[in-house]
Amino acid sequence: MKVSGAKRKALPQDLPARTKRDEQRDATRQALKAAARKLFLNGEYFTTNVQSIAVEAGVTRATYYLHFPTKQAILWELLREEIQRQRGMYLRLAALSEPSIADVRDWLSHFARATQRSRRMISFSQMAVGLHPELINVFSEARDELLDILSNAYPTLRRSETRGARVNPKRIEGHLLIMQIDEVCLNLALGVWPLDRQASIDFLAARVAAFLASLDQ
């Protein structure tokens, strides 16, 4: 039955075409983020200001403010991009059907390689938490989002929708396990632990596989 007044869903061809100005705006934003990342990761976060980021990106201070209101705002965006990388990894984990220890080991090996590539940004994000304590909530919410991804495959992990209900103990366990995965993979990437890489991944894979198996019980 036709519904009166219903709006047709927009199709790709209905969307306005991107202009050269749109492309230039995106390119400038990417240049600013690349400049900030370079300066921050070179250990210059304290001395870096909006002007120095703009100069590094080859734009004016006024142009910077068209994209980001503060230095902290561009830091937030860089951290969100790192969080987005993790989302992709946990989507892969959620897609595994009844994962064995070997399956989880392969996933962790891939996670560790991704951490190796991003190790400087991840280390910097930990330092940033010390400077901006409010980031603790950002990362806690990010872990909640990762658990939400897993809850699509493991309903036991779903959040309680009842106000005042006790926090799901499996979600607490999941938070702690995600933190352990991050810590182990980062320390392996930085080479600060005198531990065998494969033995560490094997140990962690057994814990993750056991946790996922417990969600089906």
TrEMBL record:
Chain positions covered by the region annotation Disordered: 1-26
Gene3D superfamilies with a match to the protein in the record: Tetracycline Repressor, domain 2
Alphabetized SUPFAM superfamilies for the sequence: Homeodomain-like (SSF46689)
Occurrences of domain HTH tetR-type (ranges): 26-86
Basic residues bias spans: 1-10
Keywords (A to Z) from UniProt: DNA-binding
GO molecular function: DNA binding
Keyword Cytoplasm: no
PROSITE patterns to which the protein is assigned, alphabetical: HTH_TETR_2
Entry protein name: Mycofactocin system transcriptional regulator
Organism: Terricaulis silvestris
High-level lineage: Bacteria, Pseudomonadati, Pseudomonadota, Alphaproteobacteria, Caulobacterales
